[in-house]
Amino acid sequence: MPEFQINAFKHALAAGKLQIGLWSSLCSNIAAEIVGDSGFDWILLDTEHSPNEIPGLVEQLQALQRGTATPIIRPAWNDAVLVKRALDIGAQTLLFPYVQNAEEAKRAVASTRYPPQGIRGVSVAARASRYGRVPGYLGKANDEICVLVQVETREAMKELEAIAKVPGVDGVFIGPSDLAASLGRLGNPAHPEVQEAIHDAVKRLKALGKPAGILTGNEEEIRRYIDWGYLFVAVGSDVGLLAKAADTLGKKFKT
């Protein structure tokens, strides 16, 4: 009989352990299998800015099963239907984009919980329960779901504490690119004003005991964010790795 799956990422965050991850936007089960064995703690499968759909996500989750990384899915929006589908195919950790206030954070949490704690629809034979074979899945599922919310605008930063305090929010991810745009620094997250906001956010979250997350492909920024106290850090993306390596190889042999 299949055993209920414990969410390693959620428990590591709760224990204050640094979790290093990678963004995956290639929408490929082969790519997911390759990076899943690279030693990362988590791999994010993106659907907000990638042409990822449920059938492809199922294949990517299957590919990640044998690796070291916990899969995280970012729904395209804070929408209960999208969330239900991601959870039913086996995701236990979701990253919700563009959460602006506590009410939106509460809606995100509710969409991941079965009643009476939330509004998640019930399927008795979904992939998440190994097609109905996991004993007691419906009674255990809520406890292992991990909810991460993205704070990525000037307005949301004003509501940071209220968002982070919502019961069921396990971590807050600061979106550097959208935050930069919101601060009038489109395409320049390295600008001192944006960096100051990123630093301020992690200080405020640490004061609440709430894990903070972020993404960057810049090694200097990665080390600085970790030093500041960011606890779940994406250190690059599969698209970036492929493009950089391909560009370097092409230039090496082209005159």
Task: Please provide a written account of the structure.
The structure is a single chain. This protein is an alpha/beta fold and about 260 residues long. The protein is built from twelve helices and eight strands. It has helices at about 10-15, 30-35, 55-65, 80-90, 100-110, 135-145, 155-160, 160-165, 175-180, 190-210, 220-230, 240-255; strands spanning about 20-25, 40-45, 70-75, 95, 145-150, 170-175, 210-215, 230-235. Strands 3-2-1-8-7-6-5-4 form an eight-stranded parallel beta sheet. Strand 2, helix 3 (about 55-65) and strand 3 form a beta-alpha-beta unit. Helix 4 packs parallel to helix 5 (about 100-110). The longest helix has 17 residues, at about 190-210. It is globular and about 55 Å long.
Topology:
Layout: H1 8-14, E1 19-24, H2 29-36, E2 42-46, H3 54-64, E3 70-74, H4 80-88, E4 93-96, H5 102-112, H6 137-144, E5 146-151, H7 154-158, H8 160-164, E6 169-174, H9 176-182, H10 192-208, E7 212-215, H11 219-228, E8 232-237, H12 238-253
Parallel strand pairs: 1-2, 1-8, 2-3, 4-5, 5-6, 6-7, 7-8
Helix pairs in contact: 2-3, 4-5
Sequence of strands across the biggest β-sheet: 3-2-1-8-7-6-5-4
Give the overall average pLDDT: 98
Number of helices: 12
Question: Quick one: CATH superfamily?
Answer: Phosphoenolpyruvate-binding domains
What are the segments in which pLDDT stays under 50 over at least 5 consecutive residues?
Answer: none
CATH topology: TIM Barrel
Structural class: alpha/beta
How many structural domains can be distinguished in the coordinates?
1
Strand content: 15-25%
By CATH reckoning, the class would read Alpha Beta
Which radius of gyration do the C-alpha atoms yield?
Answer: 18 Å
Percentage of residues assigned to helices: 40-55%
The beta-strand count equals: 8
What does the main sheet amount to?
A: 8 strands, parallel
H-E order: HEHEHEHEHHEHHEHHEHEH
